[in-house]
Amino acid sequence: MNPPAAGADPLVRPPRIDAHLHIWDLADGEYRWLERSEPALRRSFLPDEASGLLQDAGINGAIVVQAEDSTRDTAFLLDAAARHSFVRGVVGWVQLDTPDVAAGQLVTWAGDPVFVGVRHLIHDDPRSGFLQLPAVRASLSLVADAGLTFDIPDAFPDHLDQVAALAAALPGLRIVVDHLGKPPRASGAEEVQRWERQLRQAAELPNVFAKVSGLRTPGTKYTTEALGRAWNISLDAFGPQRLLYGSDWPVSGAHQYTETLGVIEALAAELGPAGQAAVMGTNAERIYRLPAAETQRKTADEMKAGSHE
Length: 309
What we know:
It is a single chain. The chain is an alpha/beta fold. The chain has one domain (17-292): Alpha-Beta Barrel (TIM Barrel), CATH 3.20.20. The protein has 10 helices and 8 strands. The protein has an 8-stranded parallel beta sheet with strand order 1-2-3-4-5-6-7-8. The chain is globular, with a radius of gyration of 19 Å.
């Protein structure tokens, strides 16, 4: 084991952050994509349930990510962050195709330090060239100016090839490719090679990062061996300082959090203590510029105290 850095407290363990976790309340949103999902997901997944799973797994905190393109979903996530100290950051929705509206929403949301990023359900948008729209580029420039990240879900096969150009056009924008771009593990070699080529092109830009998340897909095994190729390609392309662990709970399995975590943690273990710590937590803190955990805890305590007055 490598010795601790000079001045480091050997008793302080590095943070373990889940950089991609979902919560939703069916009483507070439509979440129409659930109509196409497995029946087990067609219920509310609330902060208390998520908090218990994270605590049992030894995870210190999470970034909760939007599950609906709506301001009400973003407001729900920010309220959860104020009430629950495990929520270290929120990636919410902004109407990127209308810059004036996006600007107003950013003024509203970005005043909260826990609002750390923006995402749009691009894979459900009928516009295959969404990332190339001038209006979207203008809005993303505002996102960059606000110091926020931009998450891109399920980028392959329709959007991953546009990421490199977006990153080059907006070098100040930190872009996070969710789920490693969604490698087509159940497809043939030609599709896998196309995904790899596009992912490597995106990784050539230093402002692009990737989440090792969302890799449990129908018709494929979820083991270290089964994920080995996608992991090795991504590690070679990004290096351990630009990869982040994310569970994609509950989409990854409402009752399979420990298994989801264990497989990715086993893959990261080959990197040694420093590399594993980076993938499993410190990268998330750095890339999303998360507020200090103490600040989150204080805010949550204040909210709880206020609810009893």
